[in-house]
Structures
1.
Amino acid sequence: MTRHSLYSTLVLSLVSFCSIAQNPDNVIYAEGKIVNALTKEPVNARITYQSLPYGSRIGVINNSTYSFPMFDNEKYAIVVEATGFSTVKYLLDPSSADSANKVIKDVELSSEGESKHAIGQVMRLDNLIFEVGKSKIDPESYSELDVLVDMMVENPKMVIQLEGHTDYLGEAKVNYKLSQSRVESVRDYIANKGITRSRIKTKAFGGTQPLSRENTPEAHRLNRRVEVRILQN
């Protein structure tokens, strides 16, 4: 191989390496738009994000859109702030990425003083994890529960109902008891953060209200959930 050919090969290798390093196929990106909840028009906001649980990766974006890489399969918390609008917080999980390796979360901002959480609204705690067959909360779930705590602090009149569900496998009585003990564990966590217990109702459904009847591990995992219903705000 001539010196020129060797040089050309090294240059091409370097370019290829840089391309791979900058655009790895396995990197997941969080992306979204910030809009006015009423008009659906773009809103320039300050988007702060940090990796969980330790916040080792943080960043700030000032725009009406955001995009950032989610490295090492870590979850990220984002806080969206804009003048004249109520601050909102979300938890982004890389496991919810689509086929294009993107976690898409558009954010709607409500004007300050305007209710963001309508009575009857139901939110699923997608990142709430318990030990198998038990009601002990996995520490990885604390960040999502803290978002719920913050929401109740920011809305002091809010009353919620925690609704526990299991899959439909096994004995109905056992499933009901498990779903009840799990929502009680969540209630205890929230109360220990300073939220009055009278603002936290609980209801257990066992496996009577599955989201899916498919007999697959994914469907059973989807059915095992805790949901938050807004009773008063």
2.
Amino acid sequence: MTQRIVIAGSGFAGLWAALSAARAVAVAGRDGDVAITVVSPAPQLHIRPRLYEAVLEGMAPDLAALFEAVGVRHVSGVVTTIHAGRRAVDVTGTDGAEFTLPYDRFVLAAGSRLFTPPIPGLAEHAFNVDQLDSAHALDAHLKALAARPETAARNTVVVAGGGFSGIETAAEMPDRLRAILGADAKIRVVVVEQAPAIGPDLGPVPRPVIEQALAECGVEIVAGTAVAAIDAGGVTTSTGERIAAATVVWTAGARANPLAAQISGGHDRFGRVPADPFLRAVGSDGIFVAGDVARAATDDLGNVAAMSCQHALSLGRVAGHNAAAELVGLPTHPYSQPKYVTCLDLGPWGALFTEGWDRQVRLTRDEGKAVKREINTKWIYPPQPDRDAVFAIANPDYVIVP
């Protein structure tokens, strides 16, 4: 009797969960005994970490040939309900059809969504770079600014949120605006961050470098205040300051996909599901979690995986392997990812590369940019559809270390 692994999501974690599961089945000599199904709207990997960039071509590579090469089936749709007790998930297809998929093992790798609190005007007037269609909407809006009468508001962009995404978005924005409005346009780009300083989650060590880089790019930092309201003419901050702007980009954090809430047990403040060392959802038999829905320890020092592709790649490999290993009799593999790096794109200034959870600065400017370019154009993209080559890098302990 064929056993079934269902994976929700084809992002970084979902893709590598599928490839790693397929590898495990092949290693065990059980091809044909285990069916692996990925459910996502399309067989694509959206390169979400790059959606702050001006050029959006190539940001959704097709996975159909890759899935076919390793024997993974793709179903176009979204998982809507998890029935943990009877090991099945409800799916709504992209054609509107509703159906149920039974599973022996389920991997939730549905990613995260932009955090959108009930701020007046946020839904109506703000843009974001969270998803590919949102990035295209922002790009179209920016390009249309040239047809408007020149005003200070037209030439101003407010980026709400000074975390990783906000910093990268803001650093790119002056050059994007000049390319659209002209080299001599008097532009203004402002990052509004409610914490006392920019990059609160990045810590104090790299902050002087970030501040210097943003200043050289022409980006202002307004810290210690939050965006309280957004309208067609700009933003009002929690301290009462008014910033006139035709463009507001919301980048204030992410939350786990709502499907995570359907898995029993406590969740962290991001909505993530606690995972054991093998990435099983704690308290839910037959369910594994990976990527942005998983709260997983990376080491024995108390560090927890970040909501980033860096961790999603390994989380996916381990979750997919273990889901298959339990079915085909292979040893399961604990998740461990003690080496942590960050590479922050800082526009024309370059990039900042750090090592360790205390983010010690290792590379800056052009040297950092070279590493960022390698990450963004090679390391995070899917492999070619060659079964043997894929399986060579789909093992659960494979980690790309810059």
